[in-house]
Automatic annotation (TrEMBL):
Predominant place of localization: membrane
Enzymatic reactions: ATP + protein L-histidine = ADP + protein N-phospho-L-histidine
Included range, full protein: 210 to 461 of 461
Molecular function (Gene Ontology), one example: phosphoprotein phosphatase activity
Boundaries of every HAMP domain copy: 1-33
Annotated organism of origin: Anaerosporobacter mobilis DSM 15930
Domain spans labelled Histidine kinase: 41-252
Signal peptide: none
Protein name: histidine kinase
Length: 252
């Protein structure tokens, strides 16, 4: 940055330079804060299953508890949770890296919706949830695997947060300049004041925090970074006790 020492011009350029430096330092401080928060969140998420595992195993080793299939099963479940968390973190790191490589081709969102349906049909059936697909073919130039992940994350959430005998609808359709994916359920819903927060890493609504079924709160952060990398947007809507609707809009 060069500064010419000529009266007012000099002052103006100095102001601009100061503003540019301030902006840069603010950005760096924000990044640093995010990094710190992420470390704290990860540590917190790891601690819970590790504490349970350590106390269960300790009790069995010291003879306070008889080893039983049930107790070993619960240790195994904690290990599965840990390994799920590590996979989620890996996926999040990959999708949030600046150089997220999108392997783009022309893909039909309806085809992705059907394969996603096939993958989750049994899980929905286990809860007697009715799962339907509506809409029509719509082609986007996008990364097929990443968009499958977007739909899978949204659909698995819909199943997780919808009680037995609920309803889930996947809709894919063409809009003027864009293609739309919509996944709606009539499950527990999201309180209005938390709608904008659910896309943040590790955020879980108060309602789902106490539930056993919830994950670590990473799925929607992954959805958002994939959709943003495609130049699209994702939006959550919900009305109290009436379920949730997630809408992904992708440019054609
Ligand atoms: P998690 O692994 O906890 O499901 P996500 O990032 O996928 O994490 O979602 C973040 C939070 O958003 C969830 O913990 C839940 O509180 C809320 N949420 C997401 N999808 C739904 C839904 N379909 N219905 C109600 N709440 C939802």
């Amino acid at each position: 940055y060069s500064i010419r020492f000529e009266g007012k011009t000099k002052l103006k350029e100095l102001d601009e330079l100061a503003a540019a430096i301030n902006c840069l330092t603010e950005g760096l401080a924000e990044q640093e804060n995010l990094r710190k928060r992420l470390t704290v969140d990860v540590a917190h998420e790891l601690r819970t299953p590790l504490t349970t595992l350590a106390s269960h195993l300790e009790a069995m080793i010291e003879g306070v508890w008889e080893p039983s299939v049930d107790r070993l099963q619960s240790c195994y479940e904690e290990i599965s949770r840990l390994s799920g968390l590590v996979s989620d973190l890996e996926r999040l790191a990959k999708t949030e890296s600046d150089n997220l490589i999108l392997n783009k081709s022309d893909v039909d969102l309806m085809v992705i919706a059907h394969s996603c349906y096939d993958r989750y049909e049994i899980e929905a059936k286990k809860k007697n949830i009715s799962l339907v697909i509506a809409g029509s073919s719509t082609i986007v130039h996008a990364d097929k695997d990443r968009l499958s992940q977007v739909m899978e994350n949204l659909l698995s959430n819909a199943i997780k947060y919808t009680p037995e005998y609920g309803h889930i609808r996947i809709e894919v359709r063409d809009a003027e300049e864009s293609s739309i994916i919509m996944i709606e359920d009539d499950g527990i819903g999201i309180p209005e004041q938390e709608l904008s927060l659910v896309f943040e890493r590790f955020y879980r609504t108060d309602k789902s925090r106490n539930r056993k079924t919830g994950g670590a709160g990473i799925g929607l952060a992954i959805v958002k970074s994939i959709v943003t990398a495609h130049g699209g947007t994702v939006q959550a809507e919900s009305s109290a006790e009436q379920g949730s609707r997630f809408t992904v809009t992708l440019p054609k």
